[in-house]
Design goal:
Keywords: Fatty acid metabolism, Ligase, Lipid metabolism. With about 525 residues, the chain is of the alpha/beta class. The protein is about 30% helix and about 25% strand.
């Protein structure tokens, strides 16, 4: 028998459960409706799930797909599946049946767990390689698939601890599929080391402690919940599960459960700040919110902080386990006005303590751009929390890793203080008459208009200038702004050529995480025309 190493152990986030169960066995780990599990009970449920999967023949390297909202089963999967050496495939519940079938098939998943509310997007007849189904009957007591109900399935597994079947930190932990905005979704491969370190990073940057109560407003299927699925447990904090993101329910749980932390895209913050009862909420303690997923306008940050939240802005992508950088707070900013603070907080910032490596470079030469806050380049990253690659797609992997860095596709400037600021996606930057126009910059100004709730700016074709800005706006309830008013307002704050030439008032297409899908707006505007660049 080989003895374990004296001075090295495999870094894996599943061991966070072992430690917190030992230290906080009777502390509340999970809250969901009327159900409450302490850490000992939480661990037993996870071991039951792991042993039940093993009894069904699931082992090292096998893929297990979960199609579930933010409920305990989804959280338990983040430990049980990798614990037995298998690979978790957490699937976006807002996708179409065709997209879900593609992901399950492409990932080679042999075992699928489906919440009954989303049974309609899983089509067994299209999935000949799936061997077993389990249904979570959380809001419906009808089992839709051949197989067992989730709680019944747990009872087939022993609650005895499972030794981690993990041979290497580089072992595949999970597959997270991209949104597929430029073709088929790509399977981003996460390894145990990256998940462990990024979870630690989330604890450090968000200030999680054993006294923290974390509300699951961020989908667990999105970058494995930015690794908070593991980070909250590592801190010994409490997970508060939330099936659907509804403002009234969010505020109810904040008050009832004493929520201290949550994560959300800027569009969710808009929903929270504009909810009619937001001003009457009595927070028992400061609410720390981490926001990412799209560059937040300073107005959004200012509105949330006005009702008692403390916003931390982070930035990252699926390919880097979620957040990679943070707008780290500087003591010298304390004397700034609320408006100035919000502007500083809207920047994407500097690398996490655990990530280190990020730069803004000329994508052709890979040379760093000037730190002048004006010269744009591409954000590139490398380090422990970069994906292994795209599953079964070596060509896309090689392209993403060209030059020894991960290429984000985001254009940014870097300020003299070293903080980066995203200006646009490569495909979103507007080149009008040879001038570069940042859609993010234009959006930030339009958000300041008192009648604007949400806005997305994209390039649209123009015979004279090649392309010009167009703004799609959701007006605040009860208001009726005109296109002329929006254009005039923008011209008051920006160079005239940056103002939108067209304005359309309509709902905005979004992903499940609240990110505005600009590609859908572009497709409509450029239909039948060829965009250069």
């Amino acid at each position: 028998m080989q003895l374990p190493s004296v001075n090295k152990s495999i870094l894996t986030p599943v061991e966070f459960l072992t430690r917190s169960t030992l230290v906080y066995p009777d502390k509340t780990a999970v809250v969901y409706g009327e159900n409450r599990y302490n850490y000992r009970e939480f661990a037993e449920r996870i071991y039951r799930l792991g042993n039940a999967l093993k009894n069904k023949g699931v082992g090292k390297g096998d893929k297990v797909a979960f199609v579930c909202p933010n409920i305990p089963a989804m959280l338990e999967a983040h430990y049980a599946v990798p614990l037995i050496g298998a690979v978790l495939v957490s699937i976006n519940i807002r996708l179409s049946a065709g997209e879900v079938s593609y992901i399950i098939d492409h990932s080679d998943a042999k075992f699928v767990v489906v919440d009954s509310e989303f049974a309609n997007i899983v089509k067994p007849e299209q999935l000949p390689n799936v061997e077993n189904y389990v249904t979570v009957c959380d809001v419906n007591d009808t089992v839709f698939f051949d197989g067992m109900e989730y709680e019944e399935f747990l009872q087939t597994g022993s609650p005895e601890p499972i030794p981690a079947d993990i041979d290497s930190e580089d072992q595949l932990l999970s597959l997270n599929y991209t949104s597929g905005t430029t073709g088929r979704p790509k399977g981003v491969m996460y390894h145990h080391r990256g998940a462990y370190l990024n979870a630690i990073g989330e604890i450090l940057e968000s200030g999680l402690t054993a006294s923290s109560v974390y509300l699951w407003t961020l989908p667990m299927f999105h970058c494995n919940g930015w690794c908070f699925t593991w980070g909250v447990t590592a801190a010994g904090a409490t997970h508060v599960c939330l099936r659907a993101v509804v403002a009234e329910e969010i505020y109810r749980l904040i008050e009832q459960e004493g929520v201290t932390h949550l994560c959300a895209a800027p569009t969710i913050l808009i929903t929270m700040s504009t909810w009619p009862g937001a001003g009457d909420v009595k927070m028992k303690q400061p609410l720390k919110i981490m926001t990412a997923g799209a560059p937040p306008a300073p107005t959004i940050i200012r509105n949330m902080e006005a009702i008692g939240a403390d916003i931390t802005h982070t930035y990252g992508l699926t390919e880097v386990f979620g957040p990679h950088s943070v707008c780290a707070w500087q003591p010298s900013w304390e004397t700034m006005s609320a408006e100035e603070k919000a502007t500083m907080k809207s920047r994407q910032g500097v690398p996490f303590i655990v990530t280190h490596f990020m730069d803004v470079v000329n994508p052709k030469t890979m040379e760093p751009v000037a730190r002048d806050g004006k010269t744009m380049g591409e954000v590139v990253m490398r380090g422990n929390n970069v994906m292994t690659g795209y599953y079964k797609d070596p060509e896309a992997t090689a392209e993403a890793f060209e030059g020894g860095w991960f290429h984000s596709g985001d254009l940014a400037v870097i300020h003299p203080d070293g903080y980066i600021q995203i200006m646009d996606r490569k495909k979103d930057i507007i080149i009008s008459g040879g001038e570069n126009i940042s859609t993010v910059e234009v959006e930030s100004v339009i958000y300041q208009h008192p009648d604007v709730l949400e806005v997305a700016v994209i390039p649209v074709p123009d015979e004279k200038w090649g392309e010009v800005p167009k703004a799609f706006i959701v007006a605040k309830p009860g208001s009726n702004p005109t296109a002329e008013e929006i254009i005039a307002f923008t011209k008051e704050h920006l160079a005239r050529f940056k103002a939108p030439k067209y304005v359309e008032f309509d709902e905005l297409p979004k992903t499940a995480t609240g990110k505005i899908q600009k590609f859908k707006l572009r497709e409509k505007e450029w239909q039948g025309k060829q965009r250069i660049g």
